[in-house]
Amino acid sequence: MGYPNNIVFCRSDADGADWYEFQKAHSLSDESVKLLLRSDSAGRMIVQVATVEGSRLFPASSLLLELYDAMDFSDPNAPDPEVAFGGKMFDATANALVDAPVVVSVPESATKLGLRRVFVEQGRWDQVKAMIAANPDTQEEWDLAIEIKRTDPLAEGLIAAMKLEPADVDAILVRAKQLTD
Length: 181
Fold this sequence. Notes:
By secondary structure, this protein is α+β, with helices and mostly antiparallel strands. The chain contains seven helices and seven strands, in the order H-E-E-E-H-E-E-E-H-H-H-E-H-H. It has helices at about 20-25, 80-85, 110-120, 125-135, 135-145, 155-160, 165-180; strands at about 30-40, 45-50, 65-70, 90, 95-100, 110, 145-150. A five-stranded antiparallel beta sheet has the order 3-1-2-4-5. A two-stranded antiparallel ribbon has the order 6-7. The longest helix has 15 residues, at about 165-180. The chain is elongated and about 75 Å long.
């Protein structure tokens, strides 16, 4: 009898042991937290699942860690393991779970309102308005635009005139998004 094409088996890379057979032979403790860690695009091992119930796990392409003494299981107010450990990063050097660094996505554009709010915060809005108003074509483009892309000639001109570094532009775009979300 063959198996359907979409069936997935989870086996150990080391010895080829089936996960469910392994789980029967090596019962996971009822008083431990089980973590599934998966490598992210930067190679960091990030906790994807944190649970007490091991039978619900399917560790395909993951590393299974079992933590003992991680929680007081007699405490009815103990935090949910997912809340306590979810999203943490395993630091192999320190042999510890640490907070994963926050990865900030830099937008490629910002709304005019977001940009205005950033420049007001920075005390540079009057300077930016004056630069835009100094050129009728730039003023018309600003007036007609809904959002400004970082690669737009209007933005490139302002970036050059304000002598902004790429990191400065990144920070402005991130903050503009925060201020309008």
